[in-house]
Design goal:
Elements lengths: L1 H31 L4 H13 L1 H12 L3 H26 L6 H21 L4 E2 L1 H24 L5 H8 L7 H33 L3 H13 L1 H12 L3 H19 L1 H6 L2 E2 L2 H12 L1
Antiparallel strand pairs: 1-2
């Protein structure tokens, strides 16, 4: 049991570290190839900051523990709303930007309702996972096109673009991209192994472990970014961070178990966890 707990702790630390390196390398590489910062922010950084959840969901599904990945996605969203926004509000009052109310929040709400309708019968199949990913790419395409064609400031795009690192040589970018990717894979595998063993040792479900320990751990990068934004007097960026993260968790992370290990979801997902996240 001690080895499993150590695997969770070390896995989480390496997961957070490698996620940052992966985002830095991938973003710098894309920038060196002439990709605009807006596109990098909404795509490379968006997927990169959700890489811990995506990798964990992937390995969990590959090991036939899809409930761990689903719990991670839903639990991370709950942590983003309750923990991250709560901590941010304690540091500085949050004034919601009008564009967030008119654009970003409705998009997130629509995506949440769409995901809920897909899994309403309790099944997460390959076609449903594919549908979630298609919606994600459609939203990203629309957001990029809208942001490029308007002079208005998109909070979610600004928040993600703000995470793009400074100038980096192409060789260094490739190096950190590869190092980050390899360590991401290893640490995610380590975390899933430890989490499954702890769940079995304490007699709790993979879903519960995913909702709690794994979800909070993989939300730490978003928490750090939101605290930094609040300290700089930019709480609206923290909101953009949460909205972007929740969108990727719903449409990318939750799609992975459906694509790799289609299964019937535990009843608690529909009767307890998803309604709690939506509320």
């Amino acid at each position: 049991m001690a080895l499993s707990v150590a695997a969770i702790v070390v896995g989480l630390v390496l997961l957070v570290w490698s996620s940052d390196r992966f985002v830095e390398g991938a973003s710098a590489l894309a920038y060196n190839l002439g990709v605009s910062s807006l596109v990098i922010g909404l795509t490379v950084v968006g997927f990169g900051t959700s890489a811990p959840e995506i990798m964990v969901a992937g390995f969990a599904a590959w090991n036939h523990n899809p409930a761990l990945g689903v719990g991670n996605a839903i639990g991370s969203n709950i942590a983003n709303i309750a923990l991250i926004l709560g901590v941010t509000a304690l540091i500085i009052p949050i004034a919601v930007h009008s564009r967030i109310v008119k654009l970003e929040l409705p998009i997130l709400l629509a995506a949440t309702v769409f995901a809920g309708l897909l899994i309403f019968n309790g099944d997460l199949s390959r076609w449903k996972g594919t549908a979630l990913l298609i919606l994600l790419f459609a939203i990203l395409f629309w957001l990029v096109r809208d942001a490029l064609n308007t002079k208005q400031c998109d909070i979610m795009a600004v928040e993600m673009a703000d995470e793009i690192p400074g100038a980096m040589q192409r060789a260094d970018a490739i190096k950190w991209f590869l190092i980050g990717l390899v360590v991401l894979l290893v640490s995610a595998r380590m975390l899933v192994w430890g989490a499954v063993n702890v769940a079995q040792g304490f007699g709790v479900s993979d879903l519960v472990i995913g909702l709690t320990i794994v979800a909070i751990g993989t939300s730490l990068p978003e928490l750090a970014a939101s605290i930094a934004s609040a300290r700089k007097g930019e709480p609206d960026l923290a909101i953009g961070n949460v909205i972007g993260s929740n969108l990727f968790n719903l449409l990318a992370v939750m799609a992975i178990p459906g694509l790799l290990s289609p299964s019937r979801l535990p009843d608690e997902v529909l009767t307890r966890d998803f309604p709690l996240m939506l509320g």
